[in-house]
Amino acid sequence: MGRFVNPNNSAFQRALNSEIYVDKSGLLEFTNSIINTEQSMVCHSRPRRFGKSIAVNMLAAYYSRGASSEDMFVDLEISKSSDFYKHLNKYDVICIDVQWFWMNAGASEKVVAFINEQVMEDMRAEYPEIDFPEGTNIARAMSIVNVATGRKFVVIIDEWDVLIRDELKKTAVQEVYINFLRGMFKGTEPTKYLALAYLTGILPIKVEKTQSALNNFDEYTMLSAGPLSKYIGFTDAEVRELCEKYAVDYASVRHWYDGYRMGGYEIYNPKAVVSVMLRKEFQSYWSQTSTYQAITPLLNMDFYGLRADVVEMLGGASVPVNTKSFHNDMVTFNGKDDVLTLLIHLGYLGYNQVSQTAFIPNEEIRSEFLTALEVSKWNELAEFQRASEELLEATLDMNAEAVAEGIERIHMNYVSVIQYNNENSLSSVLSLAYLSTMQYYFRPVREMPLGRGFADFVFLPKPQYAEDYPALLVELKWNQRAKTALAQIKEKKYAESLTAYTGEILLVGISYDKKTKQHECVIESFAKQ
Which domain holds residue 316? Predict the structure, then answer.
């Protein structure tokens, strides 16, 4: 039993000892299903604060010969699997955290040598009967052990991409590291000594540099997590259970921390959910300093349409994104799509795989964006906020003429970046126009099923503002009259369907005439029966 070779299970025990532990041992059922197969090499990337290290520690505790872990897993989901005991503590495990080695090696140029040195120290202690030649590296050592004992290894690497994402300009460092990975995972020989390889980090595999080293890995990312989706973070069912146990309002937790959609699951940031359960405070649990450092340089990049997309997402809209051009690093950017794709991998944006759109997933992330943008003094944001506040005031005062003028002003000021000639594009402008509502209202629900149809926009005030701010039902029309939009709200009984909402409701009909380029608005207060 060593630090890196056949480690004990104390790291995972720390997670089990915590006040809140959500059982994600089902991940082991997946890895057991692929162990010793052609699919046994996995790269599972996800953002910081999404439980990567806990997963790594769980895998090591389960597979390592250096641990006796039956007691810690016997009450977890994996114990129900038919092959639970077949793989429990049956493998030689090498578990390393590249971030730790990078921080302790003294220099990035020394990382690979330091990893080999430290792991080989454990290997010699673990297999004293084997004479490893001087200069033997990890890959060769695993091969030697396999020949001598017939044993196969499980290799687990946390923060595998740290040198790829943070030392991009150091070509020599990258080449040495890539050759290190290639030696362990590529070719015929590794298939003899590897039972399973599990890599985790933030970024997907960088094709240009690591293709020859890692093209035999199956990738699961924030863009496409497949069967590993429910292990990215906490699922909605898991959060509901925690809310009941800790007496925390589920609707508020959902508003603040939900928003990631993958594999049919609604996924929450585990760090945030645990924090709000224990502290009972709804706020952002992302580090504002690290957020500012991570996203501000990206948002300040001078790519056409990037800032308009960000403001649009702040208003609750989704924007199209082409994720295929991304270079899988944090330096190479050829346009706004690359910036948005990186923000998806970092967890600052959600991604809809079906519509191929990006969006700000929840209030926590939205507040981080606003903080970063305010600190960086975005003139666009200040202008939008001021215009949007005036528009909201006009709407609440039921000043339809001022509302139409305000929307038209936003349209004209941003006509170069937001062209619209249909209702869908008009919706995007409305997201921008009502940006200021996010202070007092939940994120607007678009195409909300109500009555006999789907309401274009529904704004519901947050509980603390419910007495002072009415709900807003907004219907949009293109090349028709605003009164037609209002008539549709009434005809399809949208307002009557908001039975759970007992406060005041304003009905807002808005239209845009393509020929005259004029906007029209009609506002009425809904009289409840």
Answer: 288-375
